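During the practical work, I selected for study one protein's amino acid sequence and its backbone structure tokens, as given directly below:
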Amino acid sequence: MNQITISTRDTDSEQRCIDDCNTNATNADMECQHTYYAEVQNAENSMSDWEKLMYPERLEYLKQLARNSRDECVRQVDKDREDCVKDCCKKTT
């Protein structure tokens, strides 16, 4: 006699897991943005008004570094969220 096992997905726990992944990613993304704004503010505060007028490219360079850092942070957050969601799907199958 053969026994058949039917496996069902617990969609409620899967959805809760995915929601947690999304919440964590949103929080991490906000932290990336806060860090970016702080770095831009620090760049602006590190230069006098005279320096900003004489060397605008320096300020733009510092802001670009902050943007690059933010973009990398956001990419990592997105990757972590995708991995988290994949793990949720694996756990509930």
